[in-house]
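Onboarding guide, step 5: your first structure request.
Type a short instruction followed by the sequence, for example:

Predict the 3D structure of this protein.
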Amino acid sequence: MLRRKLLTFASLTLAMAAGHAQPAPAFPAKPIRLIVPFPPGGGTDILSRLVAQKLTETAHWTVVPDNRGGAGGTIGIAEAARAAPTGYDMVMGQKDNMVVAPWLYKNLSYDPTKDLVAVAHVAYTPVIIVTNANSRFKTLADVVKAAKADPDGLTYGSPGNGTTIHLAGEIFKTAANIKMRHVPYKGSNAALMDVLAGNVDLLMSSVPSAIQQIKSGKLRPLAVTSAKRSSSFPDVPTVAELGYKDFDVSTWYGLFMPANTPKDIVATVNAEVNKLLATADMKAQIQAQGAEAESMTSEQFGALLKSDYAKWKGIVQASGATVE
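The system replies with structure tokens like these:
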């Protein structure tokens, strides 16, 4: 009898406790910080603010951009890697600071494959090979012919030593079996000014950086380095189309969160971002920046991260590029 009463009392106690238990609040229950690892005004900042704005409008989340620039984007990435894995801190990473920087910087504080989780791929942009509109080079074949006739006589500029854009030039030199001298600049604007002035023969550039000068007729595009043509310049061939099979060098952008962020939160953010990328408005706004919208599952994006991380180790080492 006593045992029966005790069991009944225990059952009632458990039922009352269950009745008073508060369900976990739906995500997100507060503003999400989106770390932008570059200063305001650049391509990564513009893309980040576009994503934040659209998530606020369509998902009714509060997403707050927070610029944490410096050291090629690695300072902002490191801050994201140190954040608590609650889903309320994410960062807009890109190929340069996620898979190239780890092989350039000797004392980087994060391992992108271990300290962060890939959440949502947002966009990619090819490198575009351009020359001054008055240049003797009308096609990429002209460049290769001239380089073979005068080894090391040609120069190409890039926005910086060790960037994906610089390394795209090194990969092309290997593919074409030619030599060209690399001239690194401190940013895209300085590189653009020198190719416009005719001080370097060619420029490797992101599409967003060169788009206005190309459209104004001051620069002549010769090729893009991605597997597919750029929708901003559909008449410009890919390097692969010009005889360099499987040539594909592009820069991607995507959202990352600290490792161990709950999988349901990662899935929720991925789903909302992919909804945005499927809309004509979002595609058009990303294209206006010279980039291409492209959605993936978090698993697909994670696989891309790991594949590129391994691939670019050899590319960086072969180039000899380092950053202190």
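Each response can be followed by summary notes, for example: Residues 129-242 form a domain with the D-Maltodextrin-Binding Protein; domain 2 fold (CATH 3.40.190.10).
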